[in-house]
Amino acid sequence: MASTHVIAEPRVPQVVITREFDASRELLFRAHTDPDLLVQWFAPPRLTMTVDRFELRDGGTWRYQHWAADGTDYSFRGIFHGEPSPEGIVRTFEFEGMPGHVSLWTVTFSERGGRTLLTHNTVYQSVEDRDLDLRSGMEEGADDSMDRLEELLARLAPVSR
Amino acid sequence: MASTHVIAEPRVPQVVITREFDASRELLFRAHTDPDLLVQWFAPPRLTMTVDRFELRDGGTWRYQHWAADGTDYSFRGIFHGEPSPEGIVRTFEFEGMPGHVSLWTVTFSERGGRTLLTHNTVYQSVEDRDLDLRSGMEEGADDSMDRLEELLARLAPVSR
Asked: What is the ipTM of this complex?
């Protein structure tokens, strides 16, 4: 499997996660925007995911939940800025358990010779907010999710490319 | 007049501007959200301002223009995240002349004993985007705007407090 790179510098309210995939950017875009695909790879380990709302357009709102085995749910919400496309997806992000703490989450898909570099760039209102995300296991979660995304893309590839 | 503080650290994609005003946070919120008040203080020196759209609600869109004397206009747009209130205003921000470069702009109003600390916190997708803003005269522009805001608040105060 490819490796996931996470850049999180001290005292900088930003996390940049990158990973290269053997897939087109259109397929990666679909894996990020089709709820039936998204729920197969995106949630942290041991959580499942449901998508409550996903209005994929400029100004559209989105909301999803992660669920623990005991039924505890964690809800997240935000708004798409600009028209989401295989060029990229820009949205705001807020964990409903910590209202008022908002981040800007940009996903870009950079295709080169049939392979695509995926970048998740998140900037936070403060370093404290960023550090909370890191302490909640963001790095390990990202690596695990990206592994599952790679497996999903392999399952889709025969019919999609 | 009070002084404007601008924090912009090297290699950090963020600018934080603060200034204390002798006014309630409700009045400061109005000066930020009533287009007739906003255009009186917000534009950079030598530019005038018109507000094209200002849907002040969660998910609402906004768009305004700054105009040079020769008729050149600079348009900006974005979306409000969460319900704007005297607690704060969170929105995305994009200069239409540089599409795809988006920032997250949070304004908070912290009242203490009749005075209010105003904070404009902007986080960018990259340090390069932040540095472009700084080089375009953001600091001087902020100081000038805050002076005009102070003058506006003094004009409003007799009827508003």
From this structure: 0.93
> What's the confidence (pLDDT) of residue A161?
47
Q: Which residue is listed with tokens 């449901």? A: A50
CB contact set of B135 (below 8 Å; sequence gap of 6+)? none
Strand order in the sheet with A48-54: A5-7, A14-21, A115-124, A102-112, A88-95, A73-85, A61-67, A48-54
Chain B environment of A13 (Cβ under 8 Å): 12-14, 123
Q: Which residues contact B26 (CB under 8 A, 6 or more apart)?
A: B86
Quick one: closest CA in B to A124, which residue? B123
B161 near B27, Cβ under 8 Å?
Answer: yes
DSSP structural state of residue A43: S
Among the listed residues A71, A86, A79, the one whose alpha carbon sits nearest the alpha carbon of residue A117: A86
pLDDT value of position A114: 87
> Which of A81, A83, A89, A91 is the best residue to mutate to test the B interface, defined by the most B CB atoms within 10 Å of its own CB?
A81
Query: How far B138 CA sits from the closest chain A CA (Å)?
Result: 19
The minimal CB distance from A123 to the residues B87, B99, B104 is found for: B104
Tokens of A91: 């949205």
- Mean pLDDT, chain A, rounded, equals 95
The whole-angstrom distance between residue A113's C-alpha and the CA centroid of its chain comes to: 23
